[in-house]
UniProtKB/TrEMBL annotation:
The keyword tRNA-binding does not apply. This is CDP-alcohol phosphatidyltransferase family protein. Keywords: Membrane, Transferase, Transmembrane, Transmembrane helix. The chain crosses the membrane at residues 36-60, 81-103, 109-129, 176-197. It holds the Pfam family CDP-OH_P_transf. It comes from Salinivibrio costicola subsp. alcaliphilus. It comes from the Bacteria. InterPro entries: CDP-OH_P_trans, CDP-OH_PTrfase_TM_dom, CDP_ALCOHOL_P_TRANSF_CS. The keyword Coiled coil does not apply. Belongs to the CDP-alcohol phosphatidyltransferase class-I family.
Length: 206
């Protein structure tokens, strides 16, 4: 829901950084992989209840995630890079609830499991429609600079990261945050399934 506004704010500074990094020889796939492995360090940090350290790894991961796309737009978008980026993003997202579950299984495990279940709904509906949108050559006017069609919802990347930040800042409320955000993810998944199904059915009926 907030991604389009966040992108508008960060697009210019990311572009300036991408131009400079491209001059230094940075490659988008290298940035993607580096950000992913740094982000995965949040998992053991969370398990050890080092929440401030985990938050720093999450922030760095998201910074690299913005930079890899900006560099790719400077050097030329590729399907391989888009595939790598979105796949590693979903793995990273899943690692954060797992980290909180390991940190405090008694209080967090069920809420973390619920959130992972909800992530499956948002992720599956997102990727399935992106595949069909590509097959039917459906335009993506809101996120025209993305490799995949980004079908919207009330929980997108910005909301996901905001929830992770809140969990790190207020770890004792992790379960409550996970339940609330998970329910919002279910609403998003439901709306995507409904919208995606009817959009594709209308196209096939023409």
């Amino acid at each position: 829901m907030l991604d389009r506004y966040a992108i508008a704010v960060i697009r210019w500074p990311l572009k300036q950084a991408a131009v400079q990094l491209s001059r230094w020889g940075a490659k988008p796939d290298t940035v993607t992989l580096s950000g992913f492995f740094i982000g995965l360090l949040a998992l053991p940090a969370l398990a050890l209840q080092a929440y401030g350290l985990a938050l720093s790894f999450i922030v760095i991961n998201r910074l690299f995630d913005g930079l890899d796309g900006a560099i790719a737009r400077e050097q030329g978008l590729s399907d391989a890079g888009g595939f790598l980026d979105i796949t590693l993003d979903f793995i990273f997202y899943a690692s954060i609830p797992l980290g909180f579950a390991l940190a405090d299984p008694a209080n967090n495990a069920i809420a973390a499991s619920f959130l992972l279940f909800c992530f499956m709904g948002t992720g599956a509906s997102f990727l399935a429609f992106a595949t069909m949108a590509s097959k039917h050559q459906i335009d993506n006017p809101v996120y025209a600079n993305k490799s995949l069609y980004y079908i919207g919802g009330i929980t997108e990347g910005t909301e996901t990261i905001a929830s992770f930040v809140l969990m790190c800042l207020f770890p004792s409320y992790m379960a409550w945050i996970a339940w609330v955000f998970g329910i919002a993810c279910l609403v998003t998944a439901s709306s995507r399934v409904w919208a995606g199904y009817h959009t594709l059915r209308d196209i096939e009926g023409r």
